[in-house]
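[[Per-residue structure]]
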Amino acid sequence: MLEFYLQYLIIVLLYAKCTAGILVNAFIVATSFQKWKTLKTLQTCDKILSCLAISRCVLLFNAMLLELLLIYFYQLFQNPVLGPAMMVGTMLMNNTNLWLTTILCVFICVKITNFNHKLFIFLKTRISSLVH
């Protein structure tokens, strides 16, 4: 009986966390879209941030959907085609999210730091021309 309540609590917390994440990321996308609509252009960092927010919305929605399917339709995961396809889709979304985060971190790191190495100065001038 305690297991049931604990499992129910974990599911409720997962859905609350995913819903909050989707709302925050949707706000970021809406703000960027409004800025793009007003200015007719976006800076590279804003484009990356918008893509990252969309990617995270999709990833969080996928987590909620997979949890729902796992609870109520666990037989789908036993299907030799559909189960691995869902896992590959999840891994693809997760890796996309990680790569976009990495790109954003590198752009911001190069923009705010100041080293005097030739390679770093070259990268800084190239990336600074992209990132306003």
In short: The CA atoms of residues 114 and 128 lie 12 Å apart. The two ends are 57 Å apart (CA to CA). The chain has one domain: 2-130. DSSP finds four helices and no strands in the chain.
